[in-house]
Amino acid sequence: MKIDVTFGSVEGSGFVMDYCSFGNGSKPMVILPGLSMFPVTPMGETVARQFYRFIDDYKVYLFDRKRDINDGYSVENMADDTAEAMKQLGIYDAVVYGASQGGMIAQVLAAKHPELASRLVLCSTAASAGDVSSPVAAQWLELAKAGKVVELNRSFAHNVYSEEFCRKNANTLKMVEKLGGPDDLKRVERLASAVINFDAYPILPLIKCKTLVVGASNDKVLGGDTSPKLAKALGAELLMYDNSSHACFDEEPDLHDRVLEFLRK
């Protein structure tokens, strides 16, 4: 399936943020991806094919983190920069779809900038670092600091994806496990460090828009009870997958149909 994708960047207050957009609909949708070693927008065509169910109803925007991530760059900073980029592009009242760390950003964005979010979809994410019962994110931080590229890539794959996915894609995962240099490791280190002190509980009451929380019982990154805690705190609708790990947002074939059902309510 060929989907036209437009690539661009926004220059804000001390930052440059890349984005891409696709879809023909009149309603805006913003995708905030999770922590990654590399920027996501260069893979915009792949993301567009994954989100093809949305292209008739929505104009979809995928935002990366800012280009130069500095020490101490917090989740709140990420949300404020994304909010500024959205405002520059005239994106208001959007469906904000955040995955993993992107879901943390989405919570802060909706609380501090309510005019930007009409609905939230929070996939495999947490309201606080204190809710995360797994040590995986801390392990990623240590591997990045130690410069262990192969070990970090292997940990990403085997903790984020299901065992079945890893078996089916074993050759590809083997090919890419050596990818990443010092700058990429520094990116992971700084993004992972931002999670350590994250706590959105004080501002969750400011989120007034309808919210869908999506989680996985076998989430190796967060722990299986993290998404239910977030849904309860928000009074949100909860969708749990019993056979997926952290990346249920990539692996579950019916997820986007379920999201569209939620958005049409």
What are the low-pLDDT stretches, counting only 5+ consecutive residues below 50? Answer: none
Which range best describes the helical content: under 10%, 10-25%, 25-40%, 40-55%, 55-70% or over 70%? 25-40%
Q: What would the principal axes of the Cα set say about the shape?
A: globular
Mean pLDDT: 95
Separation, N- and C-terminal Cα atoms:
28 Å
What strand order characterises the main sheet? 1-2-4-3-5-6-7-8
Key descriptive features of the protein:
eight-stranded mixed β-sheet, 265 residues, 40% helix, single chain
Topology (elements, then pairings):
Elements: E1 5-11, E2 16-22, E3 27-32, H1 44-50, E4 58-66, H2 75-88, E5 94-99, H3 101-112, E6 117-123, H4 136-145, H5 149-160, H6 163-168, H7 170-176, H8 182-196, E7 210-216, H9 226-234, E8 237-241, H10 248-251, H11 255-263
Parallel strand pairs: 3-4, 3-5, 5-6, 6-7, 7-8
Antiparallel strand pairs: 1-2, 2-4
Helix pairs in contact: 2-3, 4-5, 4-8
In short:
The protein has 265 residues and is α/β, with parallel strands linked by helices.
Write structural notes for this entry:
- This protein has eleven helices and eight strands.
- The mean pLDDT is 95.
- The radius of gyration is 17 Å and the shape is globular.
- 40% of the residues lie in helices and 20% in strands.
- The chain is of the alpha/beta class and 265 residues long.
- Strands 1-2-4-3-5-6-7-8 form an eight-stranded mixed β-sheet, with helices on both faces.
- The longest helix is centred in the C-terminal third of the chain and has 15 residues, at 182-196.
- Helix 3 links the parallel strand 5 (94-99) and strand 6 (117-123).
